[in-house]
Amino acid sequence: MAQRAATIVGGGIGGLAAAIALHRRGWRVEVLERAPQFTEIGAGISLWPNALRALEALGLDGPVRALGAVETGGGVRDRRGRWLSRTDNAELSRRFGHPLVVLHRADLLRVLAEALPAACLRPDSEVTAVRDDRHGPVVERPGGTSRPDLVVGADGLRSAVRGALWPDAAGPRYAGYTAWRMVTEPLADPPSEGAATWGRGERFGCTALPGGRMYCFGTASLPAGTVSGSSEYAELVRRFGAWPDPIPALLAAVPEDAVLRHDLYDLPPLSSFVRGRVALLGDAAHAMTPNLGQGACQALEDAVTLAHCLDDAPDVTDALRSYDLLRRPRTQAIARRSARLGSIGQLSWPPAVLLRDTAARLMPERATLRSMTPVLGWTAPGDRDAATKNERP
């Protein structure tokens, strides 16, 4: 049987994970990345138990965990610094079989890229056209044209693949708030727990990275495209500098030129993630707000599931139908849940904020963990140990 070929458009977390999964199954893989190198300029990333299970299926959970920090606890605080809810992450690990691990996005991307032969990686390769005709998919780029057996669109929120083959799909929609992300310099006495602090139309969160650094983020409800009147660092200090400890100390440890800001968008639900022998994956298929920390986690799940479906159904078209049936309902439900959580976190009307904070304070920890089961209890298709890896009682 001739070796099958896959072209993956986009060299981010989901694209590289899909390439690894297919390469290890004997596919000839090329990853086309328009940037000059495979890297990430982002800040921290949270890998929940479901993502670690996907990495385990790729054989990479060990190297990734070695570069990350296991979060021991966390929760939500109000604007005065009082705990509204807390989570014992040891219990989370016991229930779901893996801990919550936080690391720098660039470190995760490096592990994924190094798991592939260098010949598979094609930086500076911007795709100019994608189509699917009766002979199969066609990918055009300045260096030439290819006709692989499979095309995977893993090229993000504003996917060129989606734009070409899903021309009538609605574009990204603004979530109503912007986000700042940053990593502190190493701290002599970093906070022992992560926390998200809810204000009125604003939030600030932090979680530990290796080496005494902290990954931090802030959000504020603003019209899309709002420009800060000063530097992004100065805007952060203006908004959050008087918030409860440890937020002022964390801001003081952030290099002034190290603040990233992005308006947040998600993707309206698509009617399908596949067209013939072309599949969408990750943000290209189901971009979601970061409120559940599941964007990259779901992309990793996508990659593992796609490869499994191609194992089960040698015909690519049939395999992609199975992939769509498995991934679309789950990812779209998680995207809706993330959007709802973001709307709750961004509430600004004082009576609504009071009601929100009271409800969070009254929610038992056990109920919070149980509510996370549909998200975190995922197991890789074909995993014979699934019964022991789902939520423990």
Spell out the blueprint of helices and strands.
Elements: E1 5-9, H1 13-23, E2 28-32, E3 44-47, H2 49-57, H3 61-67, E4 69-70, E5 73-77, E6 83-88, H4 89-96, E7 101-104, H5 105-114, E8 121-122, E9 129-133, E10 136-141, E11 144-146, E12 150-153, H6 160-165, E13 173-183, E14 195-198, E15 202-208, E16 214-221, H7 232-240, H8 247-252, E17 260-266, E18 274-275, E19 278-280, H9 283-286, H10 295-312, H11 316-345, H12 350-362, H13 365-371, H14 373-376, H15 386-389
Parallel strand pairs: 1-2, 1-12, 2-8, 5-14, 12-19
Antiparallel strand pairs: 3-7, 4-7, 5-6, 9-10, 10-11, 13-16, 13-17, 14-15, 15-16, 18-19
Helix pairs in contact: 1-5, 1-10, 2-3, 2-10, 10-11
What does this structure look like?
- The protein has 393 residues and is of the alpha/beta class.
- It has a domain of 220 residues: FAD/NAD(P)-binding domain (3-Layer(bba) Sandwich), CATH 3.50.50.60.
- 37% of the residues lie in helices and 24% in strands.
- It contains 15 helices and 19 strands.
- The chain has a 7-stranded mixed sheet, sandwiched between helices. It has a 6-stranded mixed sheet with strand order 8-2-1-12-19-18. A 3-stranded antiparallel sheet has the order 3-7-4.
- α1 links the parallel β1 and β2.
- The termini are far apart.
- CATH fold node name of one domain: FAD/NAD(P)-binding domain
The proportion of residues forming helix, as a percent range, comes to 25-40%
CATH superfamily of one domain: FAD/NAD(P)-binding domain
Q: How many helical stretches?
A: 15
CATH architectural name of one domain: 3-Layer(bba) Sandwich
Tell me the name of the CATH class of one domain: Alpha Beta
State which percent range the strand residues make up.
15-25%
Give the class from helix and strand content and strand pairing. alpha/beta
Major β-sheet profile: 7 strands, mixed
What is the mean predicted local confidence, pLDDT?
93
